[in-house]
């Protein structure tokens, strides 16, 4: 396989680090906070996956139950869906559960991989939503691997190609691929930090 373009390497390394850190934060058995000290981590449970830190959260729900407060639909395929609403979205934005954030990340990675190096036909409507913690963590890992594979298949010319990624739920068709790679990294970093905070809040609430 042709080596990745040199200017992609820092972003690829950042993506790998962000995903590895998030997966360790979710599934353990240990995580490194960045200072070399390992901390024991309990795997994410279903109770924590669905935990609502405040009333009225958007989350992942059984399709039969319908959308939650201020949501208009449940995105995804299968018996579970993720709260959603058409643009303009509700304001102020609903607080979202760990389940919602992890599902959002997984969908974004999986669909962008497909619209860069796959069939370019995947949609939110046919992307499955996980109804349990273990399935959600496994789905994230699969989505991250698919996006990484798409990155490894991009040559230097692809990085400058506008619309190389045809993901239909963002600005991808109007942006050079390198800008989309940067954007995906910041999505994993900032949602990963939110997920880590939710784990901290859940643990602190259980201890009080």
What fraction, in percent, of the residue positions are helical? Answer: 40-55%
Query: What is the 3D shape?
Result: globular
**% residues in beta strands:** 5-15%
Number of helical elements: 6
What's the β-strand tally?
5
Number of domains: 1
Briefly note the structural class of the backbone: mainly alpha
Order of helices and strands: HEEHEEEHHHH
Order of neighbouring strands in the sheet with most strands:
3-5-4
- In quaternary terms, these chains amount to single chain
Q: What radius of gyration results from the CA coordinates? A: 17 Å
> What low-confidence regions span 5 or more consecutive residues with pLDDT below 50?
none
Largest sheet: 3 strands, antiparallel
| Average pLDDT taken over every residue | 95
N-end to C-end Cα span:
53 Å
Describe the structure.
Helix 1 (9-27) runs antiparallel to helix 4 (133-152), helix 1 (9-27) packs parallel to helix 6 (177-207) and helix 3 (98-117) packs parallel to helix 4 (133-152). The chain starts with 8 loop residues before the first helix and ends with a helix. The protein is mostly helical. The protein has helices spanning 9-27, 46-50, 98-117, 133-152, 156-160, 177-207, and strands spanning 30-32, 38-40, 60-62, 73-75, 80-84. 48% of the residues lie in helices and 8% in strands. The strands form two sheets. Strands 3-5-4 form a three-stranded antiparallel sheet. A two-stranded antiparallel sheet has the order 1-2.
């Amino acid at each position: 396989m042709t080596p990745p373009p040199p200017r992609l390497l820092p972003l690829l390394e950042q993506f790998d680090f962000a995903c590895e850190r998030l997966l360790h934060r979710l599934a353990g058995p240990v995580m490194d906070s960045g200072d070399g000290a390992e901390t024991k981590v309990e795997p994410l449970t279903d109770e924590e996956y669905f935990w609502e830190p405040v009333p009225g959260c958007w989350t992942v729900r059984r399709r039969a139950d319908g959308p939650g407060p201020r949501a208009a639909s449940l995105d995804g395929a299968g018996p579970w869906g993720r709260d959603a609403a058409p643009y303009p979205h509700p304001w102020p934005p609903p607080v979202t559960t760990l389940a919602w954030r992890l599902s959002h990340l997984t969908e974004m990675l999986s669909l962008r991989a497909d619209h860069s190096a796959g069939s370019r036909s995947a949609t939110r409507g046919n992307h499955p939503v996980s109804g349990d913690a273990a399935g959600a963590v496994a789905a994230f890992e699969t989505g991250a691997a698919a996006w990484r594979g798409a990155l490894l298949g991009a040559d230097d010319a692809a990085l400058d190609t506008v619309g190389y990624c045809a993901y239909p739920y963002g600005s991808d068709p109007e942006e050079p691929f390198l800008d989309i790679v940067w954007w995906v990294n910041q999505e994993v970093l900032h949602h990963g930090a939110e997920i880590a905070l939710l784990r901290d809040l859940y643990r602190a609430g259980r201890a009080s």
